[in-house]
Amino acid sequence: MVRYFPSNGQTVLPIHLGFWPDNPSSPGDLIITKAFSAKLPVVCRHVHSKQPFGLFRGENAMNYAFSTFLLEAVIVIFFIKATCFILRPLRQPRIVCEIIGGMMIGPSMLGGSRNFSYYVFPPISNYIFTNLGLMGFFYFFFLTAAKTDVAAIAKSPKKHKYIAAISVLVPMVCVGATGMAMRHQMDKTMGKPSSVGGIAFALAFSSFPVIYTILRDMNLLNSEVGKFAMSVALLGDMGAILVLVFFEAVVQANVAGAKAAVFYIVSVVIFSAFMILVVKRAFEWVVDQTPQGKLVDQNYIVMILMGVLVACFLTDMLGLLIGTGPIWLGLIIPHGPPLGSTLAIRSETFIHEFLMPFSFGLVGLYTDVHFLSADAWDNQLAPLVYMTTVSFITKFISVAAAAAFFKVPTRDSLTLGLIMNLRGQLDIMLYLLCFRKHVVSLPGFTLLVLHTVVITGVSTPIISFLYDPNRPYRISKHRTIQHTPPSTEMGLVLAVSNQEALSGLITFLDFAYPTTSSPFAIYAIQLMELMGRASPVFIDHKLQKEEEGKEGDEEKGRVDQMQSAFKLYQKKREECVTLRAYTAHAPKRLMYQDICELALAKKTAFILLPYQRERLEDNAPTELLDPGMLSVNADVLAYTPCSVCIYYGKGRLRNAKVRSSVDQQHSIQPSRVRQETYRFVVLFLGGADNREALHLADRMTGNPDITLTIVRFLSFNHEGEDAREKKLDDGVVTWFWVKNESNDRVSYKEVVVKNGAETLAAIQAMNVNDYDLWITGRGEGINTKILEGLDAWSEDHQLGVIGETVAGSIFASEGSVLVVQQQVRNQKGDAYIELFSLQAGAGKLEAASSKVFDGNKSRILRMEELKETIKTTEEAKKDVAIIDYEWIKNNNLSEVEMLDGEKRAVFMSTIVGFVVDHARYYSSIH
């Protein structure tokens, strides 16, 4: 097919005319001028085949643009996904995998084959592929900007602002000076001051969309360093936008004179005013039209997504950078629910999984490592290598030094310096812009892309090595119920995500029986999934009331309901309970960090969590109420800085009306409060978790509405018992028995079993429907003989073997379940040297020294020093044991005075042995 284009001052040519297979080869270069022929013959192809059975008619589908594009889409998505899968064990961020996957189809790898390039990526399909790739970048910038809270800039601390300014200005000045000093090695276009300044700007600033994306992949969004980095990057981006406007105005002035610069500034002002005064109000109107708790209407979402293309068109028409339109449009969208979250739900998957592969495929087609030759090094690559190196070094040093100046820990400062050097999507877009404007050539663009891959690919493993967000939670101090004196305030974190779970947890807290002499300090945190936001938000409703007023209607309604429940609970028990409420917006996989950080800051004794699973009717399988919260519970159990209690409310306790200690002290008996006795049972199987559960149950014995039964399981003939664990268990049980001997509402039983089957049979024989609450430890330190055979049936390790058995649908009990895990202290952070490891090391040294006793004195000296350390450590342990003994003796003096002479001697002897063994054991294994 031949089509003739008329000449009207400009000639329209297809891309790469000479490369089309159907075109005849030109004997020379084709020069287009105004005096060119009036008609230009152009050979075109059909877009798609007209025959439904083209293969059987001898047609080649690769001769048609649309068919070729379909194959390209499959190939580029496949290679990018395959690369992500292969590099996953190396912990590489997604951006690195996507760039490498895009390069695989380009001339650097498969595209270097002439046949592959001719048949799979012919120029006929470049137009569609390129435009889809650019659209992918635009929608990515829009979606990330829509999640950005611009209002956070005003609330950023001064140190964040200073570090942001230093992180941009210092590298830009150093890189610009390096580029100006090496202008003699650059070509004419790259050597212009405006070009050098553009490259320095592209290398100096840190992009918020890039850092947010990589930190999200590394699960560092909710960490302290992650929040710091995103705040600094956001501040830097806002400054970078102003610098970019100024820089582009200078470029316009150099190219077309001062008049063009004035028109550019006027266009920026008009476009910004239109966005703020017209479009932003339209978005606010859409939010007002959306019912509370509902998603935004799909028609509005489609119009907004079309608005991204309109913003691109307007910025391009006004002479602005086309990529700034989607960013400005996204920044004025109200982040969070309902509009921001609906946009993320409706479009995020399509943008990230379908459009973005074309963007990285476009980058890969422009990247060719074969152009990195010696000639290119002399003309352009050498200055770029020096500029990129100076950029990395100066940014790293300036950010780390500035952070250290503001008293940021050394590890965090180094981590922050690496994070601010991360490169990604926005940087690639700037490199493409430099390439399109001929600031850098193809070798220079390839070098910048490889610089992005190397810096990001190397920095992320180092960041993971330097910074562990869970390290602060591993502490050596006791944060347990067992080590909280009864006469002091006990702190706890109450974490909930819905009102149904909250009612059950509040009921349990009443059973725990806080009193004026033993009050509770409750830190209630409401967990909300981060939707439509980039940065996690943590709100203290006592100090940041202004934040609550700025939330969306949907969020505000949910928060108000929960806060009303918290206030009502505290109002009725203000004499014995202090409550402080928080709201945390975070991804579900990072919610545990908010919980653990709050528990660490407030030095709480335990964390109370709901079990997010509920039994269906008619013995149906269990149903997940909130699947994401299951992972939250598992992560809290793994990284907690204190003890953890998981409560599964059902049966009578689900809607029980319990009198608090304040009601009983003032004889308050409302008509709605039913006076009835609740029966609780503690399944004590031994170990640290069960000792913690027994101490918690001991606090309930003061509640007159509760009768408590302790059932201790012992192995037959003491099989599988650990001597130290047995002594610690005996000490705790003896202490509990002596303290509650005169309490008629407390009973104690012992059951001897041979294996897990007998343990399960003993539990089922206990008249299971007579008990309203089952209390047990999660599993640490339990004699494996008691659970022999039951581990194979355990599927959910959150409740432990016994907890899962009692809570399961097979177990015919309607009683609620409470599973307790005691804090696992940091062994490396312990104040004393681990005794057993030292003794083992001394034995190995002694054995080795005996073999080389004839002259190797260094090992003998090391052995003697090690033994001296063991001796000193044992003496220190005795001192600590005496201190603990005096503390326990004073706290139990009232009980000791009530015993006769014979019982007093037995009791004191038991306590002394228990305390000494307890101190030795815990300091040695934790």
Describe, in plain words, how this protein is organized in 3D.
The chain is of the alpha/beta class and 926 residues long. The protein folds into 4 domains: 1-39, no CATH class; 91-117 and 132-466, Na+/H+ antiporter like fold; 490-662 and 670-821, Rossmann fold; 835-925. The chain is 55% helix and 10% strand. The protein is built from 30 helices and 15 strands. Helix 17 (499-512) links the parallel strand 3 and strand 4 (520-529). Helix 14 runs antiparallel to helix 16 (442-466) and helix 23 (688-700) packs parallel to helix 24. The longest helix is centred in the last third of the chain and has 35 residues, at 857-891. It starts with a strand and ends with a helix. 40% of the residues are buried. Mean pLDDT is 77; it is low at 1-40, 546-554, 614-625, 666-675, 828-862 and 875-884. Residues 76-463 form the Cation/H+ exchanger transmembrane domain. This is BnaA02g07610D protein. Residues 521-658 form the Cation/H(+) antiporter central domain. It is found in: Membrane.
Give the overall shape. elongated
What is the second-level CATH architecture of the largest domain? Up-down Bundle
Give the fraction of residues assigned to helices.
40-55%
* Biggest sheet record: 11 strands, mixed
**Structural category:** alpha/beta
The CATH topology of the largest domain is given as Na+/H+ antiporter like fold
Q: Taking strands numbered 1, 2, ... along the chain, how are they ordered across the largest sheet?
A: 5-6-4-3-7-10-15-14-11-12-13
What would CATH call the class of the largest domain?
Answer: Mainly Alpha
Mean pLDDT score, rounded? 77
Computed Rg: 35 Å
- Uncertain residue ranges: 1-40, 546-554, 614-625, 666-675, 828-862, 875-884
Overall strand count: 15
Count of all domains: 4
What is the number of helices? Answer: 30
**How far apart, in Å, are the first and last alpha carbons?**
82 Å
**Percent strand:** 5-15%
